[in-house]
Amino acid sequence: MKTAVVQTRVDAALKHDADAFFESIGMDTTTAIRIFLKQTLIQHKIPFEIIQDGSFYSEKNMKALEHSKKQMENGQHSIHELVEI
To answer: Total domain count for the chain?
Structure first.
């Protein structure tokens, strides 16, 4: 089978942590990436759920954003300038 090189840049800490995780389950990162690519083609989709690790779209934050939006619509807001530190 003819092979091709896939090269990408990732944060060093992310690579280190991923390498350690994959090693702990008996594979290397290259094998994990190969599995990801094959499963993507088999399933015709990303083979796992993508979850936000932040809280921007959390229920609590969405309510706060909606509250702020209503305040702005009702003229209950003040303008602040961005000041560089």
So the answer is: 1
